[in-house]
Amino acid sequence: MIINERFKAPPLVGLSFCYDKFMQTIARTRSQELFKRAKELMPGGVNSPVRAFKSIGIDPIFIKSAKGAYLFDEDGNKYIDFVGSWGPMILGHADPDIEAAIIAAARSGTSFGAPTALENQMAEEVIKLVPSIEMVRFVNSGTEAVMAAIRLARAFTKRDKIIKFTGCYHGHCDALLVSAGSGVATLGLPDSPGVTKETAKDTLVVKFNDQEALKKVFEKHSSEIAAIITEPIIGNSGFIKAQNGFLELCRELCNEHQSLLIFDEVMTGFRVALGGAQELFGIKADITTLGKVIGGGLPVGAYGGSQEIMSMVAPAGPMYQAGTLSGNPLAMSAGLTCLKKIQAANFYQELEAKTKYLVEGIKAIDPANIQVDYAGGMFGYFFSPSAIDSYEAAKENVDIEKFKSTYKKLLDLGVYMAPSAFEAGFVSAAHSYEDLDKVIEAMKISL
Ligand SMILES: *Cc1c(COP(=O)(O)O)cnc(C)c1O
Asked: 175 C-alpha to center of ligand 1: Å?
């Protein structure tokens, strides 16, 4: 509501003119009251840490509803949303077909704990769309998918060690809450209290895009390495692509040493292309994890791979993994509807054209000091004079103070970006070019 009124102002002539005119303090008193109470009820007032806006240093916004590209908060403010629930909302919020599918499913019962035809249909779509998946198991979150994928890789190879890259996030399972600062591979030390050294010691951490370090770890631990797990495009340290040859090297080393390659496509799956990053780059993973978009806004995760590997999973094989609500009919209905809709002709071309338009608009504001990149409906922008190819580079070069101050202004102008300098953003099919123009204009003002 507020942004629309503001952006109806006459075209901007010069930045000095517009800032005062656009910048009115948006009241967020109800959000503030709710957050105060929430902090007494839930740790940090939230059920997932990044929602608390801690890295910006302001109170989070409590959302009342959402529709299409917009969020509406408890105080009646409207925001153009580029978080998209952290990835799932590729069709925009409250998509009418997904809504109808969920309602129809709910009328037939919300959970049976028994097989359904819906699960077959959903599995058929996933197997059809993701190049390396011949068989799939549904779970309830990305974290669960990753936990199972790691267990599966260990069961299949009868080895213990996992290689992960710095800056990649794979959910909150113990074995992967590990990273190491330096570029040299080190035995992982736990990042979070509660993760034991014993658990962490089987996680080898290597700097993303560091081919030499990766080769060295394989030389040293060759026959102990069960798998490499990686985000094929990092979306959890901002948006960072693999450099030419890096994913190929991962594939080659895994082939050479009989280790498995796990692509964590929880974020990139159905997001950067219909078949995920593996389709984009033409590299086959042995195990793929999925989440976010696959559930159409409901809690769904999945992992899959070849028939041979997936046949290890119980009850076909000995690797145990289960779930009371896995394959839930509401979640399958939402996910299936979403997967059908993203197969529309030109869906990804149109989505990527919008994403490109947005990031090029942002880049043009200050080309020397803003780095942007994108794939499909996923993008990132860093306030940095140099290109970013790793989490380490991001930590070193990104102007976090500039990010914070810009972020607050953007929010006041009705633009809801991820509240951290190290998170990717998401464009949905519901965003219009008019929305994108507003955001570019707001970014100009904020900077
Ligand atoms: C979000 C994410 C996860 C965790 O998924 P949840 O559904 O939050 O448990 C794992 N891996 C990647 C790459 C992610 O982006």
From this structure: 14
